[in-house]
Amino acid sequence: MSRLEATIRDGKRVTAEEALEIYDWPLARLGKLADERRNQAKGADYGGRGKEVVTYMVDRNINYTNVCDVYCKFCAFYRTEKDADHYVLSQEQIDGKIEELLAVGGNQILLQGGHHPKLNLEWYLNLLRHLRAKYPQVNIHGFSPPEFNHFAEVFGLPLEKVVGLFREAGLGSIPGGGAEILVDRVRQKIAPRKCDTEGWLRVMEIAHGMGMRSSATMMFGHVETPADRIEHLGQLRDLQDRTGGFTAFICWTFQPENTVLKVAKMGSHEYLRMQALSRIFLDNIPNVQSSWVTQGPAMGQVALKFGANDFGSLMMEENVVSSAGTSFRLSLDEMRRLIREAGYEPWQRNNEYELLGEAGESPTLMA
Questions:
Q1: How far apart are alpha carbons 170 and 154 in whole angstroms?
Q2: In this structure, are residues 143 and 111 in contact, taking their beta carbons and an 8 Å threshold?
Q3: Whose CA is closest to 196, among 162, 239, 150, 161?
């Protein structure tokens, strides 16, 4: 056993330089080490059964608008106000989607949209107040860091003020969307109008300081290098050292269909490699989520042996990735079956990774 492999097996921190070396190791070796790290993670113990448990979420992705003036090269979802199929959802339309979520035992909405240039501050705050009053049992996981930077600019307010107002109005937690690769050279190539690395990290640090939790993400496989990916992971790890506010990490490969950015689609082999490396490197983020939405259910299942301890979300509705030509769907029964077949107990969770109901059952679906 090499010195570096012993470091990993002992649960010790690896450097960025060591991560670059690990990146080139055989995939099977990486997967085995990532699985060991998964079992060592200082996350929820679940009564001593943490190694046997794989969690999942029942939530709904609600894209409140597809109007966006950022025009990211990797996005096939956005529209301008001149496009015939642009939209802004009404409160009634959003309520209808939440009612459907509650009917299947869901407990969270993922509320995100484009950077709409004309929606004002009160539109957002009124929506949040309405949702919090009508659906207090549903966590509002919403508005990515680029959206908050957009709000601060359009509303003429400091970031701290905007995040605070949204929190007071009912926002529960913040998704890690819009991170892509947290290296400004890369961001300038793929999304020059979106916030820079510092802007993304600043939103998360502010939110964590206010007691809100968030997820962290990485979309890779476009114009970045392996060193860029590791720099991205380093930014997340450094912030987590300071705040402890990230609950989970999710990575996925860029889906190039129907987008301006034309590159070869990266395969599942590379996805598994990066997820495994991320589990090893991100020693202070307790949960790693399998990305079946982009990789497909079977590969999402395999990812459970490459460092993931969470199967992600039922994802009742998904618009962004599917706009780029990738569309996978699962039922709750199928999700639970995939987890069991991999040798784990399926448990529904909330955003804090607390278990709900009985193993493999949604609370409202139990007999």
A1: 21
A2: yes
A3: 150
Tell the burial category of 176 from Cβ atoms under 10 Å away from its Cβ (0-12, 13-18, 19+): buried
Q: Residue 98 has which token pair?
A: 């939440």
CA distance 63 to 42: 33
- 16: tokens are 């960025």
For residues 310 and 130, give the distance between their C-alpha atoms in angstroms, rounded to a whole number.
31
pTM (2 d.p.): 0.89
The fold of 3-41+49-350 is TIM Barrel (3.20.20)
Distance CA(101)–CA(107), nearest Å, equals 8
Enumerate the H helices of the chain as residue ranges: 3-9, 16-23, 27-40, 91-103, 121-134, 145-155, 159-169, 184-190, 197-209, 226-243, 268-281, 292-295, 297-302, 320-323, 332-341
Cα–Cα distance, 235 to 269 (Å, whole number): 24
Determine the Cα–Cα distance for residues 160 and 349; give it in Å rounded to an integer: 30
Per-residue pLDDT tens digits for 290-326:
998 888 899 999 999 999 999 998 866 644 444 434 4
What is the amino acid identity at position 237? R
Q: Would you put residue 156 in left (φ > 0), alpha (ψ -120 to 50) or beta? A: left
pLDDT at 80: 59
- Angle between helix axes 121-134 and 159-169 (nearest 10 degrees) is 30
List, as one string, the DSSP characters of 245-272. -EEEEEEEE---TTSSS--PPPPHHHHH
The alpha carbon of 228 is separated from its chain's Cα centroid by a whole number of angstroms, namely 19
Q: Are 59 and 105 in contact (CB under 8 A)?
A: no
pLDDT digits (tens, 9 = 90+) for 13-71: 999 999 999 999 999 999 999 999 999 987 667 877 878 999 999 999 999 887 776 54
Question: Rounded to 5 degrees, what angle do the CA atoms 249, 36, 13 make?
Answer: 65
C-alpha distances (whole Å) from 123 to each of 73, 90, 91, 230, 360 are 28, 10, 10, 38, 39
Q: State whether residue 55 is helix, strand or coil.
A: strand
